[in-house]
Please model this.
Amino acid sequence: MSDVTFELRRQPETWLDLSALTPDKLHGHTLTAIKAIRLRCGRRAGNVGDLFQVSGDDPLSLRFVDACRSFVRLGHGMTRGRIRVNGHAGHYLGQDMRGGQITVRGSAGNWLGAGMSGGSIEISGDAGDFIGAAVAGAMHGMTGGNIVVGGNAGKRAADRMRRGTILVLGDAGDFAGSRMIAGTLLILGLARTGVGYGMRRGTIVLGRMPAHVPVTFNDCGRLKMEFLRLLFKQTADSRKRFGYFREFGPEARRFAGDIAAGGQGEILVLLNASRRRSA
Amino acid sequence: MLVRLKGAVVYDPMHGIDGRRMDLFIRDGIMVPAPRRDTRIDHTYDVRDRIVMAGAIDIHTHIGGGKVNIARALLPEDHMPYAVQGSPILRAGSGHAVPTSFITGYRYAEMGYTACFEPAMLPANARHAHAEMADVPIVDTGAYALLGNDDFLLRLLAGKTGQKVINDYVAWIVNATHAHGVKVVNPGGISAFKFNQRDLDLDVRHEHYGVSPRRILKALARAVHELGICHPLHVHGCNLGVPGNAETTLKTIAAVEGLPLHLTHVQFHSYGREGDRGFSSAAARIAEAVNSNPNISIDVGQVMFGQTVTASGDTMLQYRGRRHAHPKKWVCMDIECDAGCGVVPFLYRDHNFVNALQWCVGLELFLQVRDPWRIFLTTDHPNGAPFTTYPRLIRLLMDRAFRAEMLDRIHPEARKSSILDSLDREYSLAEIAIMTRAAPARSLGLQTRGHLGRGAAADITVYEPNRNAERMFSKPALVFKDGVLVVRDGKVIQSTSGQVHATRPAYDRGIERVLKQYFDRYHTVSLGNFRIGSDELLGFGRSAISVHPCVPR
Ligand SMILES: [Zn+2]
Model:
C-alpha cells in the first residue's frame, strides 16, 4: 500500500477548497473515484483529476507534495488517518479536526487547527494568525488535541482555546492566548504585546520573559511547579527531537490574570529554559 | 406568446375552484381565458393530474433590513456549513436560519412562493431594507413601515394631537418609504425600554410620554383604516412570550373597537399561566376570539424544532430572552430613536416543556380558527423557524397521523397539557390554497396575485400530487413567476427580478412643514434624503413598483 499522493498540475488562480479530501472521506474510494471528486476553486468547481496528478492506493494516508497558499480547509473535520504536506498548507488547515494526524514540512496560514477537538497537527515552519483559535462567531477555539509549530506563530494564537496543547518553538505574535478559557499554550520564543489578554483560565508557558506582561496580571513571584516537570517530560517523550525539554527545570515566575476579565489563568515564565532548542 | 398548462387540477379559492380539471392559458405573463379554438398556442406544458395553485404569498417573513443583517453577522456558524456554490445563472450564498438574500429568493421560489412581505421595516432603515430585498431574486417583495415607538408619533400622541395629523404623518411615512402597510411592534414598549421600563402592558403609561400602548394602537389602527390602506394595522402586541399574555391579546382585540386588525405571530401571544409550571396554552380562547371577531385576522408564527435565530424590533422582549440565547450570544440596540432591534439565537427543543408547548399552541390555533381566510401560515421566519420548514408545517396541518406521531416525541408534560391530540381537523388542499395564497392576497389588497383568474399575474405553482404533503410542497414540479418558468423539479432554473408592492395613501402636504422642523432639529438625515425616490427604489434592482390603490374611509 502506498500513500495517495496529490501533485498540483498548476497553481490555482484563487483559493482551492480541499475539505473534500480527508482520509475518512476518501476511505473506500478507488483512484478513479477520487479523481472524479469535485473541488471548489473560487467561483468555479473542478475535478480532482484535472487539478492534481493523483497516484497511490491507500486513502488513509494522503500526501500533498507541492502544496501552495491557495489551499484552504485541508484536513477539515478529519477523524482519522494521516495527511502529509510539503509546502504551504494554506488557511484553515485541520479546522474542526477530531482525530488523525497532519504533518507539514513547510508552513501554514491562518486558523491552523481552529476549533479542533482531537488529533495532532505539526508544522515545521511558521503558522499564521489564530492557531487553535475560535473562528469568527464561534464561542470557543480548540477543545482538544495538540498543535506543534516549529517556527513562529502569528497573532492571537489560542484565542478562546478551551482544552488541548499548543506548542510554539519560535516566537508568537500579539495577543497570544487571548480570551483563553482553558488549555495549555507553550511558547519557547518571545511573546509580544497583550499576551494572555482577557484570559479566564488555562496556562501560558513562556520560555523567555516578554517585554511587557499586561498590568492586569498579578505577579505571584517565583514558584517551583511540579506540573511543569510533568509537562516537559511528556513533551520530551512525545518526540525524540524534543529530548531537550527534559533539561528544563520546574522553576517559573507566575503571573495570574487576566484580572480585567475576572480571570484565574496564569502566565508562567520559565527561569531555566535558557538551553534553547537545537535547530 | 401564448402558453397552455394542459390538464391541470386547479385550486383557485378566489374563484371557488376546488380541484377542477382544466386548461390554463398565459399570454405574456398574464392569465387569459381559453382562446378560440383556432388560436396558435406557442407552448404547452402537460400538467395532467398535477395540482396547480397560484404562487404562494408569505405575509410575514423577515428577509430584509437591519436586524436580518445583524443576525447574519452574529452567526457565522449559520453560514459556514451551509455554503451554496454559484452557477452561471445563480449567485452563490449561504445560510440556514438567515440565508443570504439570493439564497432566500431561490429557496422561496423552490417552495412555490412568489411574494414575500417584510413586516418590520424601520422607516429610518427603509433604504437599506429595500436595497436588500431587491437582491432577493424571483419573488415580489413589500414591506410594512414600523411605527408606534418613534419619537415623533409619541410626541404627537403625548401632545394630544388630533387624528388628522396622525393620519397625515402615517401616510407621509408610507409614501416616503414605499411601504405596503403599517406595523406596530410592542406599541410604545421599545421606546419605554430605553426609559428603563422592562415591561409595558396595554394600559400602562410610558414613563416619559405618558402614553399607553392602547392609545398608540387605537391611533394607528384608525389611521390605517381611515387612510384606506388595504392591509389592516399589522400588530405585534405587548408582552410577547410572557406567560399569561393571552389576557393582553384579548384586550388588544377589544381595544380597537371593531377596526380591522392583523395580529401577527399570535402563537407567541396565546399563553396562559395555569398548571404546575405556570405556563399553559390559551390557544382555545384566542381562537374563539378570532372566530367571533370578523375584523381580526392572524398569522400564527408556528414554532418548529431546531436551531434558528430570533430577530425582532422588540428590544424589551429580546432583552428578556437573552438568557436563553443558544449559542450564547445576543445583540440589542437602538436604531435612530425610531425603534430598536434585538437578535437572540435560539434552539427550539422538542424535549423542552416550554418549546414543546409553544409548538402545540401554534397547531392548536391553526386547528381551532375556523375561517382559513383569516389565518395565515407563517413561522415568523426566522423567529419560530426558518421558512424552509413550511412544507413540514403543511403536513402537520393536513395529516392527523403524522401530527400524532410528532406529538408522541415531545415533552410528555407538554403533550398532556395540550388538547392537540383531541383535535382531528385536517386541512384540505383548498384550505391550504386559501391560507397561503388567496387570503394573504386579499388581506394585502393584491388584485392580480393569489389567484389564477383572468388578468392575474401568471405566478403559478404546479405540484406533483403526493400523499406526503411535506414532499409535495417542498418540491414543486414547475413554478412560474410572471409567466416565466423559474423552477423545475424543485430547483431554480432561471432567476428573475420581482416587483415591489407599495401603497400611496393621500395626505395633507402641511405635515411636511412640521416634519421638516423636526428633522432639522433632531434627525440624522434631512427630510429630503429620508424620502426614497421611485427611481432610486427601482435602481436597487426590482423590475417594477406595483402601486395598490387606497380607498379612504
Ligand atoms: Zn415577525
